[in-house]
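Model it.
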Amino acid sequence: MVIWLAGLSGSGKSTFATYIAHELKKKYKGKVLKIDGDEIRYLFKNDLGHSLKDRIKNAERLSKLVYFLQKNTDLIIVVSVLSISQKWLNWNKKKIKDYFQILIDVPFKILSERNSKGVYSNKKHVVGADIKYRKPKKNDMVVKNNFRTKEIERFSKKIFSNKKILNFLIKYNKN
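Modeled.
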């Protein structure tokens, strides 16, 4: 299974992904892999910039990597990435077995005011500022993040009680 968390920079994707992966690891004893978009950039020595063209190339790279891992391992994969390319999200839905897409939705105005990573200080090659952001479509779940600690637990319970996730976890337990 792949749980794919999408959203703007600073929306809480990595925080939610870490929590979800931790909860899954407790139950499935290490058969969980968390992949973060920033970590993939680092893995490839930041060989791509942040222009729209480079972001789409990175989206392709990440989608194909996750597809390869899902196809060739029995890992549950939790991905947190900006996800600017609807083309590659559609590809994921078509190619990746047991794919679950979640949008972490926070208004750009709130993110730019918080500016937790300093991303929004630079207005060049910033998704939501000079690069238009189109929210991913056909999400399995949308979470409005209000940045409260209890929200993480509530959100996780909502994910783990989702019928599609539950059915997969039941099937996964039998293997």
